[in-house]
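This entry is passed on directly below:
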Amino acid sequence: MRTEVEDIMVIQELELKNFGKFHDRQIQLSEGLNLIYGENEAGKTTVHTFIRGMLFGMEKQRGRASAADTYRIYEPWENPVYYAGRMRFVCGGKVFRLTRSFARIGKKTELVCETDGEELSVEQGDLQMLLDGVTESIYRNTLYIGQQRAGTEESLAQALGNYMASYEETGDTALDVSGAAKCLKENRKELNARKKTLQLEWEKQRQSLELKGELLEEEIRQKEEKQKQLSEEIERAAAAIDTNHVCAPAEETTSDAEHQISRIVPILILGGLLGVLFFPWMIARIGSALIIAGAITLRLTARSKNINDPNKAETVDESLRWKKKEWSCQQLSEEIHELELKREAFVLEQAEENQTLAQIRRLDDQLAAVDLAETTIRQIAEEIHAGMGSKLERTVSMIFSQMTGHKYNRIHLDEKLKLRIHTSEQVLTPEQVSRGTMEQLYFALRMAVGGLFCKDSPMPVLLDDAFAYYDQTRLEQTLRWLSTCPNQVLLFTCHTREQEILDRWGIPYHKVLLTDS
């Protein structure tokens, strides 16, 4: 018995307007199992690829890769400019019509709900919503199996890890754990770049501040040295002046002798004048001599004063010079005081938090928060993966057990989707079993993961000659399991044995015959 699911997606009709070898070819499908039969080159893979292209679109590759890409391979054989198709499907109880033009010129996609006439937008994500968020990569690695492609790609492991963490934590598969981790990584890169810029800026500021401080200290040191030299010179001058004061009495004695001479000189001159006036001419000569002697004595006395006076003037000049030095010393003291005030202000300025340093500290806090967020996400993902991974293991084990006639009942699955088969005697890798068993194992994995992603709206299972390595017993067991799964199944084959098994077991199916005509 098939499980009834209300929101199951069922493809009702395909119209290959101009796709590969087909032109205006219509294919009717039904829910449940569809057997699409055709000989080699009948176009089975073309129809298989058409469905994927309709659901997810097709883009032409550029460069050397364009020669072998899907777009180029399935370009219409005739009239390649008209490259289009249409699909009608049911989802959520409503009928939708999806039309695509794949041509490079005039490329267009339309999505219409035929049930209520509403026009939807593929560009805005309406189709992606109907597909339950399943991407082409996920579909290609789960429910869509091409010829001899039972294995999965590495990208499926990452997508599955995202799904597990997102769905178990929030019930919403839109949350992308890997995307969140990538966002945090980019955020860290940006923060580190900003921090590096600020650190370079701070280094320049620090060097400038250090130079400013050194220049200020050097200026203070030079002025203090100059002040010290002036103070020492002033002290020596003061000591010399004190010594001159001690010698002052000798100068007074000299001054008294000069005073005595100054008294005699006027008498000599006066006597000489009187002799000239009142005595005869012979005596006048003596008077003249006396006048001359007085004059000479007066001149000598004046000369003696002239010799002493410069000493006194020199003493006054020396005193004034040292007085100026005292003033200079006082001015230096004031300048040093002002510089010391500047130094105190400079020290206080340095003690205050620098704006650049504050920004660097804030960035460090943000980087620490990013690290914490990454660690938390990783721990949560690991815990959730451990819990949900066991559920996935049980589903894979159940499917694989039914497909192998309960020969293998336990499968182990690691975080990279590496499979191990547990038996009662040993643990086997897929490479250690037969090719048919290995194909069954990967088929079970694909179906289990596909069911996980499409839990609310199961998508069609597309199988293009996927059972080439199955013997009769394996194929029979696999077809019996497929008849019970809720998904619509499209089985493309060039063999008749599938139909024979379905008929023998009475399993209902819808047959589509592809011919070259």
